[in-house]
Design a protein that fits this description.
Blueprint lengths: L1 E6 L3 H12 L4 E8 L2 H11 L5 E6 L5 H11 L3 E4 L6 H11 L2 E4 L14 H4 L2 H7 L2 E4 L7 H12 L3 E11 L13 H9 L2 E5 L2 E5 L5 E6 L3 E7 L4 H8 L5 E7 L2 H12 L8 E3 L2 E3 L1 H8 L13 E12 L2 E12 H8 L3 H18 L7 E4 L6 H9 L4 E4 L7
Helix pairs in contact: 1-13, 3-4, 13-14
The structure holds NADP nicotinamide-adenine-dinucleotide phosphate.
Length: 399
């Protein structure tokens, strides 16, 4: 069918490349381009020889001109951005200049402020519409599948959804005292930020990790979980009909939080540059350099993830509860694609989102969040490509 340019060659990109190769009818040709070309070449070496033709390139995705040259040379139908959120806008600029469709998994963040909001990317709406190209925002798991789950609930089971709780549990154990499952800088920025949720149309802010609940997750068991700010809350509160309150919880072990607290107390999680031996360094970036590379956790991680959405609302005047979730096994993921479940659960939906746009099912000029499209073909593809979902009509609720 067509060609995709994949930008980034980290944990998530590796899964995207594997999954594009499994879906060679859609992805006939891919180009893996990143800052460190040797990582792209290593991925190509692993997967070359199948039906999907693979090439690689070096690109600095902070540089719009370099991106334009790359896109004009390869002529992809879509760019799959699985670099870092800092590159979202430069890649969108290059897509605009070359009239190429765009998909990502995380919303733009400026390097010097840990702040997630869609404003920057929503500002591209008119320009993408005028150019006749599609930008699909947030096609990972959360954001991503969580938005598709909510759209599926809204389409099939509710007239109005009043309450949504998104629950993200990772019961994986990698055996290290402290490591993050995806890019440490992005992960730690997310966890140490203030929490927030939306109630009656207003953001309510909390101190970092102030709100804690215990939840008994299917196939995982009881876990401590904490309320975090998460980007999909902003778009879902607008796009899902009837929302009164929407929250996001993620599980963390006591061990993880104790390490994090100490690192925070000594200043290692700060993103404010400091002078070190005559050079400016950002403590959090230095910490990233000494922590285990998330891509190396795959062979060591055992256990499962469970991510899903509990919805409460009404259908035909009757109140209703509905829980949609996916359980993913770290070791199974590693066996299949050589990555742990956190990269897997992000990379599979990134490939599926790109295939929805490429096959025309979700092709619509403009900038869209994932829940704005018909969820059914995406839900079908989740079952086909390794993230089957389960549903419950009498879930335990979160107070
Ligand atoms: N929605 C979700 O559920 C979800 C979940 C997890 C992660 N994510 C997102 O997925 C994305 C990838 O995460 P990851 O864990 O794969 O991160 P990662 O392992 O750190 O990989 C990031 C990749 O981007 C490349 N890169 C960084 N800056 C670049 C630049 N200026 N130009 C070109 N390439 C650049 C890096 O190159 P080098 O190799 O040279 O460093 C690396 O290959 C992130 O945006 C993350 O926020 C989303």
């Amino acid at each position: 069918m067509g060609k995709a340019l994949i930008i980034g060659a980290g944990g998530v990109a590796s899964v995207v490349v594997h999954k594009c190769c499994q879906n060679s009818e859609v992805f006939e040709e891919i180009c893996i381009a990143s800052r460190t070309k040797s990582k792209c070449d290593a991925l190509k070496a692993k997967l070359d020889g199948g039906k999907t033709r693979i090439q690689t390139a070096r690109v600095d995705a902070d540089n719009v001109d370099e991106l334009i040259t790359l896109i004009e040379g390869f002529k992809p139908d879509i760019v799959i951005n699985v670099a870092l959120p800092y590159q979202d806008l430069t890649i969108m600029d290059a897509c605009l200049a070359t009239k190429t469709d765009y998909v990502d998994t995380a919303n733009y963040e400026p390097l010097d402020t840990a702040k997630f909001e869609y404003k920057w990317q929503w500002d591209y709406r008119e320009r993408f519409e005028r150019a006749g190209i599609t930008a699909l925002l947030g096609s990972g798991f959360d954001p991503g599948v969580t938005g598709v789950f909510c759209a599926y609930g809204a389409k099939h089971y509710f007239d109005e959804i009043h309450y949504i709780d998104i629950l993200d549990a990772n019961a994986g154990d990698h055996g290290y005292p402290f490591a993050t499952n995806f890019n440490p800088e992005i992960n730690i920025r997310e966890v140490t930020a203030k929490g927030s949720y939306i109630e009656n149309g207003k953001w309510i802010e909390t101190e970092p990790l102030e709100i804690k609940r215990v939840y008994d997750f299917p196939e995982i068991g009881e876990k401590d979980m904490y309320l975090l700010h998460h980007e999909e809350l902003e778009s879902l509160a607008i796009n899902i009909n009837g929302i009164k309150r929407i929250r996001f919880f993620m599980t963390f072990s006591e061990k993880y939080l104790t390490h994090l607290k100490v690192l925070e107390n000594v200043g290692m999680t700060s993103i404010v540059p400091i002078d070190f031996e005559g050079k400016k360094i950002v403590p959090l970036q230095f910490l990233k350099a000494v922590l285990p590379d998330p891509a190396s956790l795959g062979p060591r991680t055992k256990g499962k993830t469970n991510i899903g959405c509990i919805m409460r609302g009404v259908k035909d005047g009757v109140s209703k509860d509905y829980y949609l979730y996916n359980v993913c096994d770290h070791e199974e993921c590693y066996k299949e694609v050589g990555s742990q479940a956190v990269s897997y659960t992000t990379g599979v939906p990134a490939m599926i989102g790109a295939s929805m746009v490429m096959t025309g099912k979700w092709k619509k000029p403009g900038v869209y969040n994932i829940e704005e499209f018909d969820p059914d073909p995406f839900m079908e593809a989740l079952n086909k490509f390794g993230l089957p979902w389960k549903e419950s009509f009498s879930p335990k609720l979160v107070d």
